[in-house]
Q: What sequence folds into this?
């Protein structure tokens, strides 16, 4: 379902205008919520017992704060949706890094899910910079698509390997 939500988000972002962008954000939030829930089902979160997840939460708090502070002048009506999106994607990334505290899942986490989650964060940060600050820099759009596509590919490969055992 998460991949379908991402696909719907892609289709929505092909259109112009704030309404389509907001709907695309919602679709991607749903994808990240579903990915996060999947990772939680693979390995339950114990944030105070998972040093990796706790450190990731602190790093994401700092990164989200700095990015939000930087793009705030261009956010307009998107201030609250962007905060919510940052919380959702951060939750998914925390669930991914939590896999490091699961010995049987550690290799999959390091080879597929952590790089994929990092690329999702990079892709979304670049998209935020492009949409809210630097909409005249075409290279940002190319970088968004490359990092996003590779993130999806890594997640798909990782889930495929997990399902095969």
A:
């Amino acid at each position: 379902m998460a991949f379908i939500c991402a696909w719907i988000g892609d289709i929505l972002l092909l259109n112009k205008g704030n309404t389509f962008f907001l709907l695309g954000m919602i679709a991607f939030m749903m994808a990240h919520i579903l990915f996060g829930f999947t990772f939680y089902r693979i390995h339950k979160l114990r944030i105070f017992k998972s040093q990796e997840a706790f450190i990731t939460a602190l790093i994401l708090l700092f990164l989200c704060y700095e990015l939000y502070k930087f793009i705030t002048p261009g956010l307009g009506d998107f201030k609250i949706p962007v905060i919510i999106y940052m919380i959702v994607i951060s939750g998914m990334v925390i669930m991914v890094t939590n896999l490091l505290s699961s010995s049987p899942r550690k290799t999959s986490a390091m080879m597929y899910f952590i790089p994929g989650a990092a690329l999702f964060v990079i892709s979304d940060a670049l998209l935020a910079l492009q949409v809210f600050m630097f909409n005249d820099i075409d290279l940002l759009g190319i970088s968004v698509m490359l990092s996003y596509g590779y993130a999806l590919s890594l997640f798909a490969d990782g889930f495929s390997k997990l399902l095969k055992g």
Notes: The chain has one domain: 2-164. The mean pLDDT is 93.
